[in-house]
Specification:
This protein is α/β, with parallel strands linked by helices and 636 residues long. It has 18 helices and 27 strands. Helix content is 30%, strand content 18%. The protein is elongated, with a radius of gyration of 30 Å.
Amino acid sequence: MSKATGKKSSRNSPKRKGESVALNTPDFLAEQAEQIRQILPHVFTEGKIDVEKLLAALGDAADEKPERYAFTWAGKRQSILELQKPTWGTLVPAKNESVNFDTTQNIFIEGENLEVLKLLYKAYFGRVKMIYIDPPYNTGGDFVYPDNFADPKDAYLRVTGQKDAEGNLLTSNPESSGRYHSAWLSMMYPRLFLARQLLRDDGVIFVSIDDHEVHNLRMLMNEIFGEENFVATVIWQKVYAPKNTARHFSEDHDFILVFAKNAEIWMPSLLPRTDAANARYDNRDKDPRGAWKASDMTARNYYAQGTYEVTGPTGKKFKSGLGRYWRCSYENFLKLDKDNRIWWGETGDNMPAGKRFISEVKQGIVPQTLWHYKDVGHTQDAKKELLKFVSFENTDNVIDSVKPPTLIQKMLEIGTSNEDEDIVVDFFAGTGATAQAVFQQNAKDGGRRKFVLVQMPTPLDKPENKLKSIADVTKNRMFNASKAVADKFKGELQLGEDAPLDFGFSVFKLTPSNFKPWVNEPDASPETLAKAMELFNDPLADGWKPENVIYEVAVKEGFTLALRVEKISSLKANKIFQVTDAEKGQSFRICLDDDLKAVTVKELSLKKDDLFICRDVAIDDKTAANLALQCRLKTI
């Protein structure tokens, strides 16, 4: 019997209509298997993929040779299996730590990023335009890692100082470890796998890394994203002066690996033309088509029609030169000369050059792979930016391995558009440089980018008054940086009142689920199982709060965290909430009362396409059947 209503629960009744709300996150590998089923249904036998049938179906596309090119490491299989485990947690709002919670579309999540990525999977699948991450570089002691994957919840509690060090110890990853590289790869694999699922087809990911793991990271991303989707390896000059104390070489650069979700679709945005680039153009012959610059008419590539001789205005003759060839045929050369597109020099007897008009070149610059510190900042700039917005009482807490926001702004210029509401994700958020970069770039070009940041609340070595963890540092920086950027650019952008820049952020925290966990006891007696089932007449855990349940249900139903929750005030008999995700154009109504009144059902006037969610204990079979006919009913 339900304690709240005295009604007999009918959760397992065959008369029950409607569906149950998902209590777990999706099984990602099962989804992939289902995609294979849609294409090749005949390779399944009794619900499982028959490998021999699959190989036969693939034909020459499958490689059955015992020796083949492959990338593997100790623990790879276990890291893949980690993807199949449903998350143990949920995300609850922390409005008192947020800025403009009810209007902002920027999200900051405090929690272990693998668990968070699993929770975000359904809501953000295929919606993210750009991902930037600055993961631990695996230098031997700068990241904490669980010695086994058995319990992500346990690992999270330990690393955040919420549990003692008994059991599976969390340690650094010293080079003396026999699985130094393997441990790092096992940590990265499931996170990058889920990251790819979040990207749009025209999305891109940037990953910062140094010499320790750049080779392994490239191989890992080749496997997850496909080698054909590799775009570039960017070299970032991270220091402005050599380190004379270096034993061998002064390491002056880091790498940024760039992969597209689909390199056939993704195209980088052109970078703004600089004054220096424009200064290369002039109009020394007063050509009515405007400024131009001279370009070489020859190239080293062999061209069969590019071996002719030309005569200049003064009668001087010119050949392409030893080992070089004219870029165009003789006939086209004459056409260009007639159109005044050939420059023979001030006196008319110079080697001919083509005239490239600034009006005809791309209105932007193609990104290059060498990024100088003078253009995007260096590590000292990054540290100064952090200290500008976060005041550390204890200098031991100042984090050195931060990135300058200007570096990330360049990625935003390349990987996003100021004309769209592109979503930017960073699940190794650190001190929040990505959030600051989004604020600054939006203010600079009037963009509507929005971010989702994730950072684990790893305790600081020496907690300060307000800053107990790295996540606290992130929030503090975001708060101060957003205010500073808003004040700086106030009045500079002519934006209507209906489209103000978003300098807020909503804070969410990873916590245990609001639903009771099912404990599997294979040897339990029928009486014990019956008693356990009775407890699940209402699956909500003790101490649940309506707002937290609403957000958990919404996320597991595929709603983004930028949703809005409003109480429907016109209803008196029950508390009904309207949950709306304007970004995805979907909504539902939910009632978490113990008893759903008939008058409420009538007043709601639910229609066929409306989603209505309530607790299973709140309705009897008759009400459930009627609701299922009236709308899309789901129960908790």
